Amino acid sequence: MIYPHSQIWTPQTIADIHSRAQGQYRLSGFRPLRDLPTFDELVFLASGLTRFPLEGYKEKCKTETTLGFRTASTPLVLETPIYVGASSALENRVRLELARGSSLANSAISLEGKVNRDERKLARRMIYEVPVRKGASRLVSSLKADAIQLNLELGTTLDALHSLIRDLRRRGAVKVPIFVSCPGARVEDEVKAAVGVGADGLVLQGLKTSTITRPEGLLDYCRVPIIAGIPRAREALRERRVLGEVSLISATGTRNGADASKALALGADAVRIDEAALIALGYYNSSNEIAEEGRPNRKIEPGTGIRVAKFINSMTMEIALLARSLGKGDVHSLEYEDLSALTLEASLMSGVRLAGE
Amino acid sequence: MTKRLAGNVPKALSAPVSQGYSIDARKLTTRLLNASIKSGVSKGRHITILNPDARHNLAVGIVKRCSLSFAGSVGYYCCAFCDGISATIEGNSGWGLGDNLMSGSIVIREDAGASVGASMRGGQILVWGNAGARAGISMKGGTLVIAGNSGFLTGFMMQRGRIIVMGGVGDAAGDSMYEGIVYVGGEIGSLGVDAKTESATRSEEVELRAFLKALKFRDDILPRRFRKIVSAKRLYQYDSLEPLERERLVI
Amino acid sequence: MIVSDEVSRREGWTNEVFQDLQVKADLGRYRIRGFSTFQRIAHFDDIIFIPRYISGKGVELRPADVSTETVLGTRYARNAISISTPVYITGMSYGALSRSAKTALAKGAAKVGTATCTGDGGMLTEERKYSTTMIYQVNASRYGVTPQDMISGDAVEVVVGQGAKPATGGLLMGQKVSAIIAKKRELPPGIDQRSPTRHPDWLGPDDLGIFIEMLREVTDWRVPVQVKIPACRVKDDVKLAAKAGADGIVIDGMQAGTGASSEVVLDHSGIPTLPGIVLAREALEELGLLKKVYLVASGGIRNGIDAAKAIALGADAVAIGQAAIIALNCNRELPGITDFVREVGVPAGYCTKCHTGKCPVGITTQDPRLEKRLAIDEAAVRVASLLSSMTLEMKLITCALGKRNVHDLTVDDLSALNVEASMMAKVPMVGNGGTLLKSAGRGK
């Protein structure tokens, strides 16, 4: 007799342990009692008799997004609240196409690791990601980035962060926005620290449960889900009296325009897409591939980047459609009060009232 | 009202009427007033409504041929959902005058409020004064003539029919039109989404002038030429990106 | 190779999401489809009736003893509508639906003595001819609206919006804007038609009050005027509509269906039917208008038990759309006649292609070759059978609860099986309670 799967001893868990026994580290996410809420569990309260919806064709919905204007004299200006992120683990040709896509959509790309000249040329706007380490500021100067993102690592001290920012500004990077990436663990601490050292924006991450193959990756599991993180970050910004000044970017879990709209409504000023851009590009073909941290050996033809642009366009249209149905003429007018929650977990995590309350 | 047309408004808004009688609106609730009008209509006599006092919903839902006049101003939705009426209004009107008119004629001496002729399907409305915003919104047929100026969103989402404005139109004129034509004698504030202008052809101009002359517009005070606002028809098919959205993608 | 689907599903990166992204990377715009939301939401299955098996009365009731007569519209109208069962067929446009479909619905409803409703496309002569009670819909587009048709109706419905796609207008793709439809709607044939989101002649609740009065004057105050509201800010909207003078309010939840909508609004806008009904009821209670203004619930009602639960939660009647269409033959393979996979690319039971006009069973199409596949009189019998089965189910549950009238069902007859349903429907959980959620108490 074959027994149905145990909740905790699934074939994946068993395979993980086999791998470890062979000396290869693997951990395939975890299995809480209920699936973690995604943005799907939040819905919008469209106009009725209390607000007028805007007409589809006629009434424009503004999507222009300006980030990092707290101290930067040339803030980052995008035509859509969505931009692309690319990790250093991706092959060069993939990063080139992502850059191309971000430019065609009049947006930006955030590049981690070594950036070559082709990538810089193809990217209309580029955010350069540097780790908070000694000598990081030297990396930045030759590149003419449009914004800089400082990636916190475990053990980053406030001093190191502070001196890096000071260094960067002294070296002439004072004109462009400096973002700090917040892992999304102790959200309030991270936000307040970043604000305290003078960050122009925060790139907030959230819980990811994909398979990891290095023990360090375990930290990805030690964060709060993004629907809890964004409202908490927003409150922390409000307490520091910089809400509306320091840009908040949501960097996890956005799969479509509905997700992006909800991130904006919860308090984000922009949304960064990583996996979604790769899927639109055709780099990943199934959810198997995303969960496994391998690199599918897939050929990406030059010019494919336009798919990313089209995808961003579809997302932007979805956001505008939802915003108009709420009577808003600007996607940045989407607000907390426009939302309702469908499940208790989503309600308690995000603070959004449950439908019916 | 545009200066040119001052003094052109005829003394009598319509031809002399057959023997009729009057009803004093002050003495009646709207419900009773409309009931009296409807029963009077079935007797085939002209009815003059005295002291309409800008009340709402007067003479709505009349589907018999009849002849009415209002000796004063009317409120919202005057003569809405009618078929075959011939009405004159000596004062101003509120929103929605002649809403969903099927056939017949409505003439108003002063200004008409927003949404005059909303969704009208046939017949004719003539405004000797100015019209408010959204004149002829969602129009499906018939003719709307405005001697003065018309407000913003004139002809918004118009499907068929003609709007003829002697004066100017406000912003977003002809926005999201399907078909139909807005003729404008004066200034166009701005064009709406998917609207474009064309020149009227010679025969169109001739026909327009003849039509307007029959409505008692003097030849010498009509605009020298009319511009046409029509749909640019780029929103017809959804599979192509909408113009607003296409602009975003730089290919 | 171990399948990692489970992990991705938990994070939301399912195979559906993959397909969605790749389609959008081709299309460059949002997607459009028919049917209703695929979100998993607390619905009627999450609350149950708790019959009394042992009653003090000692009289055993039978379904035949139960009354389902329903009268709607006693607030202002001279002639309220009277239907034999509290389920009627909701408004669906001629255009989205074929003429045969609308005719079959009218005939089917008449067979059991209940009402139908026109839709966003005007009235068909067949509808008025065959329907015993016809509600005339007035929506933002005003396609096909004439005073004579309105006057011939037994009620008027002013549509503020629909639950499937709140605050966006109707959508009819070019392939369904045939010459006939185009003529009726006064549009160029083949155009991708989008109805306006706002009415052309009223904007806010104060104007709505004048507008409703105008409709009453047109119809000589004879017939009820109901206002259809998509479930979003329910309490505010219901109160405003009631104050504007509505005889009745239709509350349409997010599970409602449509012939075509952008997918993003279908899945992510509006609140579910369960809390929609309860909030509407509370709004009327707070105004002292409960039972004076009638309440119709719609959005995902599939059978008589769903209908009974909606009534117990406070509705006076329910309206069905998708269920009626399915009774007509939606998503049913007809051997020798249809081939869903070949015609619409998916097997029967999975089709959501109403917007394409390729409906293999002739319901949501304007193609005469497809429409022929819907035999009107047989379809009418199917609709009548569905309605009768729903009425029987309502009678069964009502008498099991020891009551003689379906309108006597109340919230006290209900319990919830999970927390969301308990909080949304405001009925207690089954069991002894003792949880921190004391707020999930009994409704009045």
Set down the secondary structure blueprint.
The complex is a heterotrimer of chains A (357), B (251) and C (444).
Chain A: H1 11-21, E1 42-44, E2 65-67, E3 76-78, E4 82-86, H2 92-104, E5 109-112, H3 117-122, E6 126-131, H4 136-141, E7 147-151, H5 158-170, E8 178-182, H6 187-196, E9 201-204, H7 226-239, E10 247-250, H8 257-266, E11 270-273, H9 275-281, H10 287-291, H11 305-325, E12 339-341, H12 344-350
Parallel strand pairs in A: 4-5, 4-11, 5-6, 6-7, 7-8, 8-9, 9-10, 10-11
Antiparallel strand pairs in A: 1-12, 2-3
Chain B: E1 20-24, H1 30-41, E2 46-50, E3 66-71, E4 85-89, E5 104-108, E6 124-127, E7 140-146, E8 160-165, E9 181-184, E10 195-199, H2 202-214, E11 227-231, H3 243-246
Parallel strand pairs in B: 1-2, 2-3, 3-4, 4-5, 5-6, 6-7, 7-8, 8-9
Antiparallel strand pairs in B: 9-11, 10-11
Chain C: H1 5-11, H2 15-27, E1 32-35, E2 47-49, E3 70-72, E4 81-83, E5 87-89, H3 99-112, E6 115-117, H4 125-130, E7 133-138, H5 147-152, E8 155-159, E9 171-172, H6 179-185, E10 193-194, H7 205-218, E11 225-230, H8 234-243, E12 248-252, E13 258-262, H9 263-268, H10 273-286, E14 294-298, H11 304-313, E15 317-320, H12 322-328, H13 340-344, H14 368-371, H15 376-400, E16 414-416, H16 419-425
Parallel strand pairs in C: 5-15, 6-7, 7-8, 8-11, 11-12, 12-14, 14-15
Antiparallel strand pairs in C: 1-13, 2-16, 3-4, 9-10
